[in-house]
Design goal:
- The protein has 95 residues and is α+β, with helices and mostly antiparallel strands.
- It has a single domain, classed as Glutaredoxin (3-Layer(aba) Sandwich).
- Helices cover 22% and strands 25% of the residues.
- The strands form two sheets. The protein has a four-stranded mixed β-sheet with strand order 2-1-3-4, with helices on one face.
- The protein is globular and about 35 Å long.
- The N and C termini lie far apart (33 Å).
Length: 95
């Protein structure tokens, strides 16, 4: 795939990835840009380790995490917490 690729890595354990995917699609539509959106399901600890997965959902643009302070891990299966306006959240900040 050429150009920008937005990848969302997720687990079935954490439902928040669906809201994140919806937000990504809304932003793409609002900005009227063309990007490839790739969904990567992380099913087990081995896949988490291979993808250096810090938790669900993880969003990367061209392989770079959208959270500048994020640390890739050796593998983790579970929900990920982001900071939005200095408050922890695991869902869309407007909800």
């Amino acid at each position: 795939m050429k150009g920008k690729v937005v990848e969302i890595l997720y687990t079935d354990v954490c439902p928040f990835w669906k809201d994140t995917l919806k937000t990504i699609n809304e932003i793409i539509k609002e900005l009227n840009i063309t990007v490839a959106v790739k969904k990567t399901r992380i099913a087990n600890e081995e896949e988490a380790k291979n993808n250096r997965f810090p938790g669900s959902p993880t969003v990367r643009i061209n392989g770079v995490d959208v959270d500048p302070i994020a640390k890739e891990t050796e593998g983790y299966i579970g929900c990920r917490i982001y900071n939005f306006k200095e408050k922890p959240t695991n869902t869309h900040p407007n909800k």
